[in-house]
Amino acid sequence: MLSENAGDIEEKGEQDFYWNFRHGEKTSAQKICKGYFKAPPGYTKPPKNQQKAPHIKATIDWVHGYRGSKCRNNIRYLSDDTICYHVAGLAVVYDPEKRTQRHFDKHTDDISAIAFAPDKKTIATGELGKSPKIFVWDSHTLQVK
Questions:
Q1: What's the pTM?
Q2: How many whole angstroms separate alpha carbon 64 and alpha carbon 22?
Q3: Residue 3, strand partner residues
């Protein structure tokens, strides 16, 4: 049964409770609701942090941004008229004619340095971190040399 009286609501059922909207007495309402929600018979909760990998694979469609702080000479035109720069832990090879991006994603931390060889095809990128890595790679194939 539900009745209203000047903003106060009282409900009678298995247990009586009183909910006063003016004074925000939430605890009495929470106490009564706690016993109402129970798992169905035979339900077993799956274990947390399962050791299985998820069934999906994440892919990068587009990278927005550019790292311009604490870096110098980190953007360059390459031999095939693409542009190479880095954002976070990715090196991006952008083709302005096709408006597409390709991503070199071998780093495990943010890239802090990038160097371009005179052939305008070979690139070296270095990362931050406890044991940082440097990769020398081909901008056309995105393969490590």
A1: 0.60
A2: 48
A3: 10
Q: Give the pLDDT of residue 16.
A: 46
What residues have CB less than 8 Å from 86, skipping those under 6 apart? Answer: 67, 71, 74, 92, 111, 114, 125
Q: Rounded CA gap, 78 and 31, in Å?
A: 67
pLDDT digits (tens, 9 = 90+) for 31-75: 555 556 677 788 777 777 667 777 778 888 899 988 877 777 889
Instruction: Tell whether the torsion through CA atoms of 77, 80, 83 and 89 is positive or negative.
Output: negative
Q: What angle do CA 98, 63, 109 make, to 5 degrees?
A: 135
What's the N-to-C CA distance of the chain in angstroms? 77
Q: Which residue has the tokens 């009495």?
A: 28
